[in-house]
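Why predict the complex rather than its parts? Because the way molecules touch one another can change local conformation, and only a joint prediction can capture that. The input here totals 551 residues.
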Amino acid sequence: MNQLMTLVTSATIETLQMVVLSTIFSLLLGLPLGILLCITASEQQGGIIPHPILNQVVGRIVNVLRSFPFIILMILLFPLSRIILGTSIGTTAAIVPLSIAAAPFVARVIESALKEVDPGVVQAAKSMGSTNWQIIHKVLIPEAMPSLVAGITLTIINLIGYSAMAGAIGGGGLGDLAIRYGYQRFRGDVMIASVIVILVLVEVVQVVGDKMVARLMEKR
Amino acid sequence: MQIKLQNLKRSYGDLHAVDGISLTIPSNTIFGIIGKSGAGKSTLVRLISTLEKCDFGEIYFEDTRIDNLKRDDLIAQRRRIGMIFQNFNLFSSRTAGENIAYPMEIQKMNKTDISKRVKELLKLVDLEGREDAPISTLSGGQKQRIAIARALSIKPDILFCDEATSALDPQTTRSILNLIRDIQKKMSLTVVMITHQMEVVRDACEDVAVLDEGKVVEYGKVVDLFSNPQTNVTKEFLANLVDESSQVDDIIRWSEGGLYTLRFKGVHTDEPILSKVSKELDVEFNIRGGGVQNVENLHIGTLLCDISGDKELVSKAVARLREYGIVVEEN
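Output of the joint prediction:
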């Protein structure tokens, strides 16, 4: 029992590490991409700096990355971890592929949240002499905030799932624990414990995310 | 500030949305631009407000040409005009007060000046003390008032109203138009009002241009246009003019009671029937309420009254009124 607790606790910490850090990095990568996709869209779609070629190119890259099966992308990206972090095994190494795999997803989530903003409101901001940067950070982002928070919640939940998969190819964390102990050593208790912790994590993130969205909507 | 347009053109593909418009909008007035949907009025206002560039032609504010400005000058120019819209276009992420503050915020005014000005503006639009109200808690009319306050916050020379009353009911429309008229005088604004409602032109504008298929087909004082319309488009607008009084069906009451409802149709409205009957039959009419409705160009007067006097005389009076063609209903 004691051994189980230690195993699960340390694996949970690893998972949390992976999820938190890869969420941050995927947001850092995906947020600018999402904003770029939104503002370079055609004027009819609410773009403030229409640029069809850039929009097409970035959109295609994002689509290609998104259509890759995650497990393949992970394997392809491990050499990159070695270049950036000097290692391709373990929790830290998994953060690179996780972030890059989630970034295109984040980009699309951010893009669609920003595109929900009423084009009339953007036009009003423009008519008052807002610079593009002011439109982005004073209008688009605050107006889209509830959808953005909902999107980020979804991203975190996806990353919890991805991180479990990363465990299968040496990433550490709860997925790794479930496979090495639960599956390969027939430790049913470890398997069940890992799955329960993952379920609880997902549930907690979802509930907190929903609460935040509700709080934001309340003030409008 | 006078606005001068010279041979403006803007097309989208094969569609000539604005097709050679030349117009002088005089300073310090409310100028109406009326047209059916698709007549090019929205494009025109986007061109004049520098939101969109024209393909051809020139736009002057006083003597300054503004249609060929560079990006930074364009932004500086936009900061000197106010604009309100059909759908209000308020920021839902901001409170009423924060909405009004936005144009000042982006111009980096200091915070104390901003909050002082926000309070002034809320007072101007009759919404004192509502600065913390979330936008969703405001009615349509209140939203447009906040939008007006926001547009005026930077003390513009020109206010563009793009179908500003089209989403509002007739009563709210009237109060918004009154507000616009008031502030136009107070702030010596040049107001350009884009609309498809002739009643807006009638109630608020001094001059008007009628737009059809991207061209100005008629242009002049509103009074002249109403008394002597030249084109079919204008005549059509006048024919469809909704007389608001026909929609207002309520009767003004000044006291309780009123056993009888008298309805006067058309021709009878200028005869002193009540006095006649009163003298003739020695009954007294005590008028409790009344109003006039316009139904299909026929004036119908309605009076709520009590008739006092001898019972027999009262019923005689009622019969007499009916003889005069007045509809008498006992309530």
